[in-house]
User: What shape does this take?
Amino acid sequence: MKADYIFNNGEVITIDSKNRIAEAVAVKGNKIIAVGTTEEMEDFRSASTTIIDLEGKTLMPGIIDAHIHLTIYGTNLLGVSCIEPHIQSLEDLFIDLRKKVQETPKGQWVRAWGFKESNLRENRYPTREELDEISKDHPIVIIRTCNHTSYVNSKALEIAKIDENTPDPEGGIIEKNKDGSLTGRMIENAHMQVFQYASYSNEEIRKGMQLASDEFIKAGITSIHDAGGYGDGAEIIRIMQQAINGGEVKIRIYAMIGSLTNSHEFVEKMVQAGPITGLGNDHFKIGPAKLFTDGSSVGPTIATREGYTHNPDDRGIIYYSQDELNRILGQAHEKGFQLTAHAQGDRAIEMLLDCYEIALTKHPRENHRHRIEHAGISSPDLQERIKKLGVVVTPNPVFMYANGDKYLEYYGERVDYMYAARDFIDKEIVAAFGSDAPVTYLDPLLGIHASVNRESNDGQPVGKNQCIEIMEAIKAYTWNGAYASFEESIKGSIEPGKLADLIVLNSSILKEEKNRIKEMKVEMTMIDGEILYSSNKNSIYEKNEVYSN
Assistant: This one.
């Protein structure tokens, strides 16, 4: 068998059972056909084989981001970005919002995303009155970076049918001033409800998915576990499949049955509909049934067993009672679904583990691979239960880089077992890493950097006892992600017979200084044996060129 591509003279990180470092890889069609030395690859060479000299650079499996929001990331690109470098104050943001208002027909939504008050000079969120000054004819919504809180104007409240007499929804807060007037700040389920009215059209969603897919590929992400978006989850799944079938979305998707709005309704609908986890093909599969149990780690609104360090009277928000959690996820387990839930605080994680124990006692199942999304404050007693139950966790190491200073303020010494990568590995708990983008940074190399260094972006150490090695971090972003979706036999490592989902970095990651990993870049991304991205359009990765050593 002759190869279409041969990659030679590289640092090939295989992530096989022995963690071998090879030198060369041969690809035929959409599969890897050989792994070994540069000399050994000569047997697979023909006149039409594209030969790529890696010059010592890292070739590794494509990144599998085990927790990311495709739809939200994509549609955000259609709105006002609060993370642009020029936005240093609320007034800077207001200027961009006014520009967006001028180009938006009256009555249509003006949306902004990525808001983080601590990044602005005022260190506060906007008021309803300030947003009313920008426009009373357009509903305006500004979504906080955590995607658990938003700030809206009076027009948005009117459309959402919310006034001073509207009660707080279960698991949410409609914030009021002391005089009972609305501030415009919507927290947790209140925010989720508002966004039912602020949702995008199907055409916008599909366009956003394509934009997001392109960005993911540039970042070296070849597969994602989509953690849901706003609106009708079933409709989002349908649009996602159409975008894949139409060729606009080229990444592989393992789609969680979950929504940021009324997730239980979507889960119950899918349980009754018939399809279960695993239905699909190599490009799109149905994933686990997913609920929300608590809030945002940087809100902070996560459910903790003890009060927050900076506010001991606050222990966060719980979305469902234990009985509700047991009933909804228990039914999904009985029907054959893999289960998961957003659970950040130790109280939420404990509730979820209780739910899994009850479900597995009633209906035992081997190799269920039930998950915990984020698994934020995973104290030692919870880790033991996770191990005993065979649960997979999906921590987000980049959170420590993006939010470490706030975590120290909110949770104190509990940061020593937040996103506890070292403990998970030592206890042989499978931890599949995810970015949770657009909640925070997409870049998986930054995620690897954060898991190896455990420092905030201003250099503060945050739970240094949870540092892991580079190879361990790469496995968590590749093979572990494949395991979390029952796909480790077809991807997640570089071995003959597996899918040719590969990336090349711009240097050797194993020789790079640990504190400089975040400066590295993805140079090439291949999915299904096709080179879809090259950082240099005139590079050796150009598809129709043939190069020899």
Notes: Residues 544-549 have pLDDT under 50 and may be disordered.
